[in-house]
Amino acid sequence: MPQVHDRGGWPTDGPIDRSEHEYLDWERKTHALVEVLREQGVIYTDELRRGIESLPPEQYETLSYYERWSASVELLLLEKNILTKGEIDAKVEKLEESWG
């Protein structure tokens, strides 16, 4: 059984949308964060990919490209005990309050 990231004809036979789009600020920031974490030796490309590929299929299918990156970074920072779930949740709550 192929994994969710193996897109060869699954879950539909429809083509993958490969069109370019303008990146949102949070997507640019996510990309920059990953690059900084790589440069500092905190995470590695293979780890990022493993985190993305380990997402449950129902979650993988609903997330965008950079949302998958973000979910993987969160997983890796938790695994490496760099941040706790409580610290992440507190920051998310604070950001949501400031965004309205």
Explain what this protein looks like in three dimensions.
- The chain is mostly helical and 100 residues long.
- The chain has one domain: Nitrile hydratase, beta subunit (Cyclin A, domain 1, Orthogonal Bundle).
- The chain is built from 5 helices and no strands.
- It has helices spanning 25-39, 45-53, 57-62, 65-79, 85-99.
- Helix 1 packs parallel to helix 4 and helix 2 packs across helix 4 (65-79).
- It is globular.
- It starts with 24 loop residues before the first helix and ends with a helix.
- The model has no long low-confidence stretch (mean pLDDT 88).
What keyword list fits this structure?
0% strand; mainly alpha; globular; 100 residues; Cyclin A, domain 1; 5 helices
Silhouette: globular
What amount of the residues lies in strands?
Answer: under 5%
| Class of secondary structure makeup | mainly alpha
Radius of gyration: 15 Å
Counted beta strands: 0
The helix content, as a percent range, equals: 55-70%
- Domain count: 1
Distance between the first and last residues' Cα: 43 Å
Which fold name corresponds to the CATH topology?
Answer: Cyclin A, domain 1
Regions with pLDDT < 50 over 5+ consecutive residues? Answer: none
CATH class: Mainly Alpha
Which architecture per CATH?
A: Orthogonal Bundle
Going by CATH, the homologous superfamily would be Nitrile hydratase, beta subunit
Largest sheet: none
